[in-house]
Design a protein that fits this description.
Layout lengths: L1 E6 L4 H12 L4 E8 L3 H10 L4 E4 L5 H7 L6 E4 L1 H8 L5 E4 L7 H10 L2 E4 L2 H17 L3 E4 L2 H9 L8 E8 L9 H4 L4 H5 L8 H9 L1 H13 L7 E5 L5 E7 L4 E5 L5 H9 L13 H4 L13 H12 L3 H17 L7 H12 L8 H23 L1
Parallel strand pairs: 1-2, 1-5, 2-3, 3-4, 5-6, 6-7, 8-9
Antiparallel strand pairs: 8-10, 10-11
Helix pairs in contact: 1-12, 4-5, 5-6, 6-11, 6-15, 10-15, 11-14, 14-16, 15-16, 15-17, 16-17
The protein binds nicotinamide-adenine-dinucleotide and magnesium ion.
């Protein structure tokens, strides 16, 4: 029996994680479940899973959570510090599935506690990669990648070592606008952008997939998790999302991990690691799929790829600035305030206007994150007047 906490339990990844736990009730005991503001869903799953504590990020929702949990035996807590405290309860395994840099402090706290951290929350690693990897080393925590590409690379590394890697090939679906002309992209609506052709995901990552910023963030994520050098990490568009990534070794032998595009597969891998558990996911029917296609990404129509690679090369706080500006721009796009093509433009403007010394602490990262958000707001204001 392993004790488990899920940060972002009401989201897409959190819900998939709960689905797997439900199917293996004798193997896992839930400690903490968290959400940002959805009290009803959080209270419902916390009761069902007999969690020890349920934490709502938005402190104004505390009374509502407490009322919803009355008589259940589940403790209610609220606010950022409560999220951090919940991450330090010493669960054997923690799913970090908050979206955005909001997950940074809880994820760092879970790493500090020294258990196993299954990382979906890529924005925290993008923003504070060096500090996070240091923390994992210092506290002897195990960091398992849940992002499907990084989980694939991790699986392809079994039995191999980083020194023997010639290339890591990160695959990308290309998103819903892979074949759109640049001119047509200007009028893309939020509803079109969140309708991913292969994966069902939260709104923010779906927009990131559409701009391909998701692949840019994943490039930075991969560079921290698998430090082979940025020039050895390539992006390859593969529209079917069957191959989740590949590792080419120096003898030119290439390993790939394949599966249906269902996040429960990489989540199950991280949940059971180093063992395996059954999932209800579709077996891969390659005869039906028939063919797998590949193409080079187009950096002209998808400038986010260029911006992210440059930010990764610059290092220091630059990826945190890239991420913060992108979070602001994506939220504004989803809110109907800016156009699709404005997202990358805003990120580029913020990167051009703002830099800061390499962060020594998480507070430094969060200060840069806040400053970048302010700049992004300024850029948007100029756009919308
Ligand atoms: P989602 O929007 O569906 O869920 C996000 C979760 O985080 C929710 O539980 C929400 O309540 C919580 N949350 C949001 N803002 C918060 C805040 N300020 N404080 C505390 N909690 C907050 O997102 P998702 O699609 O599940 O993605 C979660 C993370 O996993 C993201 O970093 C994403 O990039 C990554 N990821 C997701 C997928 C996927 O298939 N959905 C795949 C790979 C990686
Ligand atoms: Mg991914």
């Amino acid at each position: 029996m392993r004790s488990i906490s899920i940060f972002g339990a009401t989201g897409s990844v959190g819900t998939s994680t709960l689905d797997l736990i439900r199917r293996n009730p004798d193997d896992y005991q839930v400690v903490a479940l968290t959400a940002n503001s959805d009290v009803d869903t959080l209270a419902k799953v916390a009761r069902e899973m007999r969690a020890r504590v349920a934490v709502i990020g938005d402190p104004t929702r505390y009374a509502a959570l407490k009322a919803a949990l009355a008589g259940s035996g589940v403790e209610a807590a609220a606010g950022e510090q409560a999220l951090v405290d919940a991450a330090q309860t010493g669960a054997d395994w923690t799913m970090a599935a908050i979206v955005g840099c909001a997950g940074l402090r809880p994820t760092m706290a879970a790493l500090k506690a020294g258990g196993t951290v299954a990382l979906a929350n890529k924005e925290s690693l993008v923003s504070a990669g060096a500090l996070m990897m240091d923390m994992a080393r210092q506290s002897n925590a195990t960091l398992l990648p849940v992002d499907s590409e990084h989980n694939a690379i991790f699986q392809c590394l079994a039995g191999g070592s980083l020194e023997d890697i010639a290339r890591i090939i990160l695959t990308a679906s290309g998103g819903p606008f892979r074949t759109r002309s640049h001119a047509d992209m200007a009028n893309i609506t939020p509803a079109q952008a969140v309708a991913h052709p292969n994966w069902s995901m939260g709104a923010k990552i779906s927009v990131d997939s559409a701009t391909m910023m998701n692949k840019g963030l994943e490039l930075i994520e991969a560079a921290h998790l698998f430090p082979v050098g940025l020039d050895r990490i390539e992006i390859l568009v593969h529209p079917q999302s069957v191959i989740h990534s590949m590792v080419e070794y120096r003898d030119r032998s290439t390993l790939a991990q394949l599966g249906s595009p269902d996040m429960r597969i990489p989540i199950a891998h991280a949940l059971a690691w180093p063992q395996r558990i059954a999932t209800p996911c579709q077996p891969l029917d390659l005869a039906r799929i028939g063919r797998l296609d590949f193409e080079a990404p187009d950096p002209t129509r998808f400038p986010a790829l260029r911006l992210a690679r440059a930010a990764a090369a610059a290092g220091g706080v630059t990826p945190a600035i890239l991420n913060a500006a992108n979070e602001v721009a994506v939220a504004a796009f989803l809110g109907g305030q800016i156009g699709f093509l404005d997202i990358a433009m805003i990120v580029e403007e913020v990167l051009n206007r703002y830099s800061a010394p390499a962060p020594a602490t998480i507070d430094d990262v969060l200060a840069a994150d806040a400053q970048a958000r302010t700049y992004a707001g300024d850029v948007m204001e100029r756009l919308t007047v």
